[in-house]
Amino acid sequence: MALEGPVATISRKQAILKIIQNEQAKTVEVFLSNVGKPPIYVDGKTLLSGDKTRLFSNGLIEIAQIRLQLFIAIASTSNGENSRNSVSQQIETKLAPNEQQPFKALSSIVLPQPLTF
């Protein structure tokens, strides 16, 4: 079975998503590295093989005409403060609204190790 269309140009190991959580500052930073041959576009900026960039919430990631939008949410406790005892940030990637498919979540869990896709 052969891959057709734009997905045929995506490398098996195309990118690494690295999530760094700072418990003291109550922040999370997300970085994307292009480890595949085809370029990745992040908010209109070209990411060539070997390049990396920081991602921000509502950022648009495009790989071979597939658009993903990244959402970074910070969970709060009942009194409005960020939880310190557990992973308090969630990373969620959704298909961008201009795709013809319905808007659905693809991932919503922060992993302690870099993600490879």
From TrEMBL:
One Gene Ontology BP term is: positive regulation of transcription by RNA polymerase II
Origin, by domain of life? Eukaryota
Q: Name one GO molecular function term.
A: G-quadruplex RNA binding
State a GO cellular component annotated for this protein: NSL complex
PANTHER family the record matches: MICROSPHERULE PROTEIN 1
User: What is the protein's given name?
Assistant: FHA domain-containing protein
